[in-house]
Amino acid sequence: MKLDIYINYAGRCKEAFQFYEQHLGGKITMMATHQQPPAHFPTEWKDPILHAMIEIGGVIVRGADIPNAEPMRSAYLTLRFDTPEKAEQIYNLLSSEGEIFMKMEKTFFANRFAMLRDKFGTSWMLLNEN
To answer: Superkingdom of the source (predicted)?
Structure first.
């Protein structure tokens, strides 16, 4: 058995996955658009994503565009880093235009830890335990 993660986006799935591929070292393995978007989709969405897959750090994340998708609330994707410098770099990248829940700082359980939601609505925990 394997566990994958599926995230719905409000018209920004392609943009989000391309961003994660470029900046997080992910690899998009599949991206399919709707041949003809359903009638209830916003007309300003050009080529909404029906289904996409990206691998980040050995984990498959799947995604799609759906109307009225809300930002992630009760779940976080967690990225673990080997160095505090890399944690800080990705924190600055993902928090830009996003929402910070807990700023990057040293905690009793980690050298660096942060919680945030990026500009695409994906919630992240960033962790450097060393």
So the answer is: Bacteria
What's the pLDDT tens digit per position in 44-69? 888 999 999 999 999 999 999 999 99
Output phi, psi for 103, to 5 deg.
Answer: -65, 160
Residue 95 lies in a domain: yes
> What range does the domain containing 120 cover?
77-128
Question: What is the pTM (predicted TM-score) of this model?
Answer: 0.92
Whole-angstrom Cα distance, residue 126 to residue 35? 37
* CA dist., res. 59 & res. 45, Å (int): 28
Residue 98: which CATH number? 3.30.720.110
For residue 127 the two structure tokens come to: 């962790």
